[in-house]
């Protein structure tokens, strides 16, 4: 019988092999599931499995209705999920800094809860930079890029496997920087190759994810690095991860630079990404930003709050807003801009 993974219980017996990223099964057929195996399957974002109608002990298996079991798996608040992911990434970062290898099971476990709530918390995908703790910037950046890359890939028409892969690439594309910063090396331009090598050594990762890690700093005009690739040789997931990386790097607050509002960042990206990213990727990023931000509450530079009424892609930095206090509709400008999203 076909069941949702949330309906699985210890003792369920698989009818078919469970595959994820390559030809090697995650779990083989005839395996009796344990709680640990169920969690592993979830980490690969596999939603449905085929199991026998009887458990391994011979008892009949009557799964709880899917709607009922899914209601028991309600997610906590997004910021709590996000903070948990950042702390988990911090632990991985410390391990990499000490020379440890990437553990793909742990990496996927970090992503799974975030990706389950991706659509529900779409606005947070664009505003997660507001959660940044500068002392943990690298982990915040990795989680934020993973989230946005997955969201963009999904909206770009990629398959579930592909957008989950975009998230994994976003999470791991800067992994080698942990080692470089620890040893005092100034080899930032080499980090895509080194991160690619770390991910490849970990195994159980698709070639598409490895390519996205390797190419996330390549640009359509050949101005990127490390291989100076040009349009036609850059994989679409690589460009989607690149867009997410550029967006968050510009919006987030680095230790020695002041962050900019998401609206200012989008205005800059529209200009500076021309010739750097595929037009279709820029269009997906812009269209989704407009869709998600329309109707959002914001605080203006003068302290007043408002709701976004309309975003013009030609001047996305200065949307039309309705003030909360007197309901006046105002066109924002250089002297009255958005401070942050509420």
Automatic annotation (TrEMBL):
Keyword Amino-acid biosynthesis in annotation: no
InterPro entries: HD/PDEase_dom (IPR003607)
Species whose genome carries this gene: Marinococcus halophilus
Domain of life: Bacteria
Protein name, per record: HD family phosphohydrolase
A GO term for molecular function: hydrolase activity
Coiled coil (UniProt feature): none
Keywords: Hydrolase
């Amino acid at each position: 019988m076909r069941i949702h993974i949330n309906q699985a219980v210890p003792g369920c017996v698989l009818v078919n092999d469970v595959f994820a990223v390559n030809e090697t099964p995650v779990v083989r057929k005839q395996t009796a599931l344990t709680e640990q195996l169920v969690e592993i399957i979830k980490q690969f974002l596999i939603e449905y499995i085929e199991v026998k109608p009887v458990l391994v002990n011979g008892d009949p298996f009557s799964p709880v209705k899917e709607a009922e079991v899914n209601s028991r798996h309600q997610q906590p608040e997004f910021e709590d999920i996000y903070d948990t992911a950042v702390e988990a990434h911090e632990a991985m970062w410390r391990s990499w800094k000490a020379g440890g290898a990437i553990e793909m099971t742990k990496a996927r476990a970090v992503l799974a809860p975030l990706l389950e709530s991706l659509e529900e918390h779409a606005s947070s995908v664009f505003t997660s930079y507001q959660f940044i703790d500068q002392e943990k910037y690298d982990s915040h950046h990795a989680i934020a890029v993973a989230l946005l890359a997955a969201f963009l890939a999904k909206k770009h028409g990629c398959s579930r496997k592909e957008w989950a892969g975009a998230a994994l690439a976003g999470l791991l594309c800067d992994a080698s920087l942990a080692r470089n910063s620890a040893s005092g090396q100034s080899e930032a331009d080499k980090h895509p190759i080194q991160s690619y090598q770390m991910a490849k050594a970990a195994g159980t990762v698709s070639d598409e994810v490895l390519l996205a890690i390797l190419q996330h700093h390549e640009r359509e005009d050949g101005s990127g690095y490390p291989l100076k690739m040009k349009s036609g040789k850059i994989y679409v997931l690589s460009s989607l991860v690149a867009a997410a990386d550029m967006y968050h790097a510009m919006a987030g607050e680095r230790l020695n630079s002041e962050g900019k509002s998401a609206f200012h960042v989008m205005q800059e990206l529209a200009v500076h990404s021309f010739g750097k990213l595929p037009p279709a990727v820029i269009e997906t990023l812009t269209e989704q930003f407009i869709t998600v931000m329309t109707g959002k509450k914001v605080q203006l530079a003068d302290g007043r709050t408002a709701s976004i009424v309309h975003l013009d892609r030609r001047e996305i930095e200065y949307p039309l807003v309705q003030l909360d206090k007197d309901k006046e509709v105002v066109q924002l400008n250089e002297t009255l801009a958005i401070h942050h999203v509420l």
